[in-house]
Design goal:
transferase, 2 domains, EC 2.7.1.71, 434 Repressor (Amino-terminal Domain), cytoplasm, amino-acid biosynthesis, nucleotide-binding, 303 residues, single chain, binds (3R,4S,5R)-3,4,5-trihydroxycyclohex-1-ENE-1-carboxylic acid, Rossmann fold, binds adenosine-5'-triphosphate, 57% helix, binds magnesium ion, 15 helices
Amino acid sequence: MSSNILHVSGGAAADQRHPFLVQLGERVRSTRARRGMTRKALALAADVSERHLANLEYGEGNVSILLLMQVASALQASAAELLGDVTTQSSEWLLIRELLTNQDEATLRRARIALAEMLGTASKQRGQSCCVALIGLRGAGKSTLGQMLADDLGYPFVELSREIEKFAGCSVSEIQALYGQNAYRRYERRAVEEAIQIYPEAVLATPGGLVSDAATFNLLLGHCTTVWLQADPEDHMGRVRAQGDLRPMAASAEAMDDLKNILKGRSAFYAKAQYRVNTSEQPLDETFVVLRATVREALGLPV
Ligand SMILES: Nc1ncnc2c1ncn2[C@@H]1O[C@H](COP(=O)(O)OP(=O)(O)OP(=O)(O)O)[C@@H](O)[C@H]1O
Ligand SMILES: O=C(O)C1=C[C@@H](O)[C@@H](O)[C@H](O)C1
Ligand SMILES: [Mg+2]
């Protein structure tokens, strides 16, 4: 349905209103009712005309983002609440959001860990898991150092990308090309679920993009001892290039900028790992010494 036929009112014409705008209007009305505000009072507080507000409430007219922000602010609600974000859809959700709003990162982290334990997405056992997951961007050294670490610990080494390819019966790039990114993420989730179920002790090399799926990453954080293998952008690029593989920066004239942006966008997620080892500070064998000591100490094994 085209969105330029929205200035209609009532009766059969109401059928032409876009369902999203109708629901948006209903949420504005119900939030206003919850706040005990008349339309007139809200219009005044939001500095919009009553006519405009009525259009919004009846889903007639494609409201501008700025006007929506004004209305949300006057209702002391978030724009997400008016837009119908899942985290605003019940009284419990709203109360939980309120509890977490304005908390610092450290408190939010404690809340996430407590929730994961309560909801069963974290391992029941307290302390460090013997399933060690290495995370980081492409070329961080997850496969190379992961195999070395597994050999040293006497644990199986699990390359999650290979597990994904086994489930799918084709390569990672074929999964992405043939079935799309969402299907790939489902395979990735399944590979993590199976690995943590099958192996009480293992070293997992994870795909670099895993952190972009919050549910899969929560699962990993809840069940594994996690290490972020960090590197400078130049090293990520140099190592990936040396392997003759330019994904995910292929076909980009500004490959380095892309890589830096990906790293910047993901760093806050990679940083949720319990430990981090900087692989750019020393050559491979010395990095392994640092990683080995970090993991052995975490697992309570002799260094
Ligand atoms: N200090 C170092 N730490 C880790 N790897 C290093 C270091 N110096 C050089 N390398 C080299 O960098 C490469 C890292 O590639 P590797 O395939 O292990 O990364 P990866 O994180 O598994 O990447 P991908 O996400 O593409 O699977 C290896 O060839 C390794 O020998
Ligand atoms: O860093 C990335 O975005 C990716 C890395 C690969 O391991 C795969 O996860 C996928 O090809 C995407
Ligand atoms: Mg690898």
